[in-house]
Write a sequence for this structure.
């Protein structure tokens, strides 16, 4: 079965990380027939050179979408999705590394489960190189469990997902919802009656990086999270009491010192 890979890259990414990510796609046991990569605004010379090299080597695979300015992940993925030619689309971040069997496992599952619209998996986190951390991020597998979870947290590891483009477009695709682009999409799919699922086995090496906690804490994150919680309340996904509970538990936690958040994340979040 043919499928596409959808990626986005912007100027602050590192070329060596992107190279490792792309190489892990090309070394899959099942290769996509197209890789759509969105350049979210002008890139550094090293990133441009890298993409030019890959495009020259694999002209039949790569489709590069050039955006004149940085528009953010949601809009960038929306533009890229317009270019994909297959209904099955795999997401991939520009600094993560696929397990060699990732696409084969996910395509096989999607072919035999036509009722599933989005499929994720467990991820194994790493810092400098795959395997240097023995930490995995597990999520419930079946749809009914994920419906319960979505009230409180993102039910899918976004860089691992495989989805049906037609279903995603029917609910409006990716929206400009900074830091919550994927979460918002899963909510709309579930509200529309579509099903999601997670595979228990890890299929992606997820790069944590030194600033992962910084991106998920502080007042900038709190403001966006409160906005998103209000949307969940308006959509009827959470009740008023659940909205207040989320505010009471999440907001103070986001404002803790990063070292404290790091401790709790390592101890309890996996």
């Amino acid at each position: 079965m043919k499928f596409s890979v959808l990626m986005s890259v912007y100027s602050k990414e590192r070329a060596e990380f992107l190279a490792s990510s792309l190489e892990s796609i090309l070394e899959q046991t099942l290769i996509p027939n197209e890789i759509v990569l969105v350049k979210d605004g002008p890139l550094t010379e090293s990133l441009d050179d890298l993409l030019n090299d890959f495009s020259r080597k694999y002209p039949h695979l790569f489709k590069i979408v050039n955006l004149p300015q940085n528009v953010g992940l949601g809009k960038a993925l929306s533009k890229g999705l317009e270019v994909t030619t297959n209904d099955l689309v795999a997401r991939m971040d520009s600094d993560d590394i696929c397990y060699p069997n990732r696409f084969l496992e996910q395509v096989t599952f999607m072919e035999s489960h036509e009722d599933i619209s989005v499929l994720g998996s467990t991820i194994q986190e790493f810092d400098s190189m795959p395997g240097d951390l023995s930490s995995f991020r597990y999520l419930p597998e079946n749809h009914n469990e994920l419906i319960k979870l979505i009230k409180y947290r993102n039910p899918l590891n976004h860089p691992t997902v495989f989805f049906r483009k037609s279903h995603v477009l029917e609910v409006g695709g990716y929206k400009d919802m900074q830091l919550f682009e994927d979460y918002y999409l899963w909510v709309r799919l579930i509200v529309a009656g579509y099903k999601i699922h997670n595979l228990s086995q890890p299929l992606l090496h997820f790069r944590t990086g030194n600033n992962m906690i910084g991106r998920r804490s502080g007042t900038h994150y709190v403001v966006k999270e409160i906005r998103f919680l209000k949307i969940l309340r308006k959509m009827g996904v959470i009740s008023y009491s659940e909205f207040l509970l989320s505010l009471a538990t999440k907001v103070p936690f986001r404002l803790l010192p990063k070292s404290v958040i790091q401790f709790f994340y390592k101890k309890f979040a996996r």
In short: Residues 214-269 form one domain.
